[in-house]
Amino acid sequence: MDTLISILVLLSGLPFQAHCIRLTVSPSKLLNGLTEKLEVNCTFLAGSDLSLSSLTSLSIRRWTNSTSLREAATVSSFNGVTLSDSVTAVGTIDNSGMSFLNVIWSYPNLTNLGEYECLADGLDTTDHPLSRSSNYNVTGLSPESELLVEEILKLQQTIHHLNTDFLSLKEEVSIFMSTLTHRVNASHRTMFETSAAFNGSQYSLYSIDTVVDIVQAQATCEIYGGNLVEVNNENEFHFLKTFIEDVSDAALVLIGGNQIHDVGNWVYPQSNASIKYFRWAKDYPLFTMGANCLVLWGSFEWNMTNVNCLNSFLMRYICENVL
After folding, report:
1. With contact defined as beta carbons under 8 Å apart, do 146 and 12 qualify?
2. Gap between the Cα atoms of 206 and 220, Å rounded
3. Which parts of 192-261 fold into alpha helices (H)?
4. Which residues pair with 315 in a beta bridge?
């Protein structure tokens, strides 16, 4: 079972000559199996130790037990960086500046416990071999948090599975929406004649005369992303008149205006705006009970009439989609 461990960076009573070597460990704490990397860095500045006139190599090693050392990586002036452990390492020897060796363990575990050592090998002022070293002690916390680590790992696995499922579902939804859009567009082309754009809107005229009421017509318009048309001015009226005449022989075309909730107050339900523009046919509007819905009448000359919303008429309806 994985165990919660902590990297405690402790400079272990180094003698004076080791102070020229800087050894750092990051992060200062890690969770076994959860921390992404453990980074150990060793540096030596030329001239910081007058006894060591020429540096030949830097090595990072760790004690696997009280008597055995395992080398992780070495950088030398002859061979560059060489690896002896499953690590990533970079480094260089520079006798006129800063020499360094950087070693990284990915997802460190219990084997990373122990004492770490940075060893600097070189020559003294008389060209005799000379070594300097610096050590850090890596210790672990007590294992009372084993269950916590286990639960965190389980949560990570669950999150990974959820992310995978989400991406799969997202792809399925994307395919479904693409297919649905294609089918809706194909259905729309079959059922409607569509106009060119006019003042930021596009109009769709139902292609055949049918018995329809305002609720059915509005619901169908909404399926295709629009609403029963709102005629707001003379220019729009003439555009609709020309469009209807060009694509059909319609005589009655239902539009969105009505006075269902307040007789005498004609409104467009979608925008809830009072109708300002009317082009009433002769003898209209009617003031009979229930004549609450508004249509365009083209039998003689295109104008507006009001009809009983509950009566059945063979007519068409026209939707408006804001672009």
Report:
1. no
2. 10
3. 214-223, 234-247
4. 210
Q: Are 105 and 123 in contact (CB under 8 A)?
A: no
Q: Rounded to a whole number, what is the distance in angstroms from the first to the last CA of the chain?
A: 61
Distances (CA, A) of 209 to 2, 33, 253, 304: 75, 71, 9, 18
For residue 47 the two structure tokens come to 């001239």
What are the pLDDT digits (tens) for 169-213? Answer: 988 898 888 888 888 888 888 889 999 999 999 999 998 888 888
Taking the CA atoms of the chain, what radius of gyration do you get in angstroms? 42
Residues 6+ apart with CB under 8 A from 148: 4
Residue-wise pLDDT for 205-250, tens only, equals 998 888 888 888 899 999 888 999 999 999 999 999 999 999 999 9
The pair phi, psi for residue 265, each rounded to 5°, is -110, 95
pTM above 0.85, yes or no: no
> Strand locations in 168-292, DSSP E?
192-194, 201-206, 210-211, 227-228, 252-258, 267-268, 273-274
**Cβ(74)–Cβ(92) below 8 Å:** no
